[in-house]
Amino acid sequence: MRATVLGADMTIPRAQREQRKAQMAAAAARRTEADALPAGRTAIRSKPVRVTLDLSPELYRQLTRLADEAAVTLDVPRVALADAVRAMIRVTADSPGEVLEQLRRDREQ
After folding, report:
1. pLDDT tens profile 44-83
2. What is the per-residue pLDDT across 26-38, written as a single tens digit (0 to 9) for each?
3. Residue 7 scores a pLDDT above 90
4. 10 neighbors 3 (Cβ within 8 angstroms)
5. In the beta sheet, which residues pair with residue 10?
6. Which residues contact 61 (CB under 8 A, 6 or more apart)?
7. 66, 60 in Cβ contact below 8 A?
8. Hey, which end of the chain has fewer CB within 10 Å, N or C?
9. Are residues 100 and 106 in contact, defined by beta-carbon separation less than 8 angstroms?
10. How many CA atoms lie within 13 Å of 46's alpha carbon, on the beta-carbon side?
11. Tell me, what's the pLDDT at 39?
12. DSSP secondary structure string, the chain?
């Protein structure tokens, strides 16, 4: 197996190729066992997932207003917007009914 990356010749030694094939075959065989996890579901992600979100100016004002009011209520200098969004996600995960209704209304517009 030979790959060229930016002009560099990257040859994978035969022994490594054979070892990798054997590992993949062993993994495939384990997935056929009765109590095996489905393919692609064995690793647990340990790093946080980054999400980027574009907000309209009005939604951004609402979010910053909520974070500012939370800071006053909690008697802290500042509540980060990311912390406010994380808290909202946790609350809505526990009771998603209103969020689903809002999603329906947003899609109808």
Report:
1. 778 888 999 999 999 999 999 999 999 999 999 999 999 9
2. 877 776 677 766 6
3. no
4. yes
5. 3
6. none
7. no
8. C
9. no
10. 2
11. 62
12. -EEEETTEEEEPPHHHHHHHHHHHHHHHHHTTSTTPPPTT-S----SPPP------HHHHHHHHHHHHHHHHHHT-S---HHHHHHHHHHHHHH--HHHHHHHHHHHH-
Residue corresponding to tokens 């022994």: 15
pLDDT for position 27: 76
Give CA–CA dist 34/32, Å, rounded.
Answer: 6
Burial 8-30 (b: 16+ CB within 10 A, else e): eeeeeeeeeeeeeeeeeeeeeee
Distances, alpha carbon 51 to alpha carbons 34, 67, 85, 91, in Å = 36, 19, 11, 18
